[in-house]
Amino acid sequence: MTPKTVLSIAGSDSGAGAGIQADLKTFAALGAYGTSVLTAVTAQSTRGVDAVLPLPPQTVRDQMDSVLGDFDVRAVKSGMLGTPAVADAVAEAARAGRLPHLVVDPVLVATSGHRLGVVEAVERLLPYAEVATPNCAEAAALTGGPVGTVEEMVAAAEALAARGPAFVVVTGGDVDADGESVDVLAGGGTTRLLRAPRVDTRHNHGTGCSFSAAVAVRLAAGDAVPVAVAAAKEYVTRALTGARGWELGAGRGPLDHFGWSA
């Protein structure tokens, strides 16, 4: 059977823990055929981001035209956009209906603390998102308020859902809720909490990228958003658990995308 095609529009991580590389691993692990559009090239490892080179908007458009003109893309995930001009190029395609089941991961700050995107760029794309997946720091940057508790996550998810996305998931991996990892899903007239055991590990580089990519795969397969989000959370929990004992790099290591440690 021909696999479903999913597209990632994101930056390159030379250490391969996040960005396009993490997205393609996630697509493959979950049985989808991954295609890619690069928005930027980073010099990056588990220790942090050393340099960022945004690509010209026309180069981003050319890549999208090539992929979308040939493949039957069933879902799209966007990650690091880098500049408002690149975001405009992606928003043009979304506005034209060329980016089905768009999952927007508003990559604003890397795990290392290096700023990879700007709020203005993400805001250009939010109205076209079927699902937006900010972490707490990104939700705080987008709403202008604190997001450090489950209650604040709920408020941020609902506020962002009112700005255009059909659904918003505020991921709470950085919030220790009594030993649980709690994500907040708002949309469709309801707000719900998704809970999983908290995985005690420093190897969490690319968690947000992998989560949003997994959501896109499940949407491509025909899942409703709440089902897709729950499946993605389960996948990331397994991937975090599998990599707990790994020693890849000197900093925050990558996830076990393929279940090698299962």
UniProtKB/TrEMBL annotation:
<dbReference type="InterPro" id="IPR013749">
    <property type="entry name" value="PM/HMP-P_kinase-1"/>
</dbReference>
<dbReference type="InterPro" id="IPR004399">
    <property type="entry name" value="HMP/HMP-P_kinase_dom"/>
</dbReference>
<dbReference type="GO" id="GO:0009228">
    <property type="term" value="P:thiamine biosynthetic process"/>
</dbReference>
<dbReference type="GO" id="GO:0005524">
    <property type="term" value="F:ATP binding"/>
</dbReference>
<dbReference type="Pfam" id="PF08543">
    <property type="entry name" value="Phos_pyr_kin"/>
</dbReference>
<dbReference type="InterPro" id="IPR029056">
    <property type="entry name" value="Ribokinase-like"/>
</dbReference>
<feature type="domain" description="Pyridoxamine kinase/Phosphomethylpyrimidine kinase">
    <location>
        <begin position="13"/>
        <end position="255"/>
    </location>
</feature>
<dbReference type="GO" id="GO:0005829">
    <property type="term" value="C:cytosol"/>
</dbReference>
<comment type="pathway">
    <text>Cofactor biosynthesis; thiamine diphosphate biosynthesis; 4-amino-2-methyl-5-diphosphomethylpyrimidine from 5-amino-1-(5-phospho-D-ribosyl)imidazole: step 3/3.</text>
</comment>
<keyword id="KW-0418">Kinase</keyword>
<keyword id="KW-0784">Thiamine biosynthesis</keyword>
<keyword id="KW-0808">Transferase</keyword>
<dbReference type="GO" id="GO:0008972">
    <property type="term" value="F:phosphomethylpyrimidine kinase activity"/>
</dbReference>
<keyword id="KW-0067">ATP-binding</keyword>
<keyword id="KW-0547">Nucleotide-binding</keyword>
<dbReference type="GO" id="GO:0008902">
    <property type="term" value="F:hydroxymethylpyrimidine kinase activity"/>
</dbReference>
<protein>
    <submittedName>
        <fullName>Hydroxymethylpyrimidine/phosphomethylpyrimidine kinase</fullName>
    </submittedName>
</protein>
<dbReference type="GO" id="GO:0009229">
    <property type="term" value="P:thiamine diphosphate biosynthetic process"/>
</dbReference>
<comment type="function">
    <text>Catalyzes the phosphorylation of hydroxymethylpyrimidine phosphate (HMP-P) to HMP-PP, and of HMP to HMP-P.</text>
</comment>
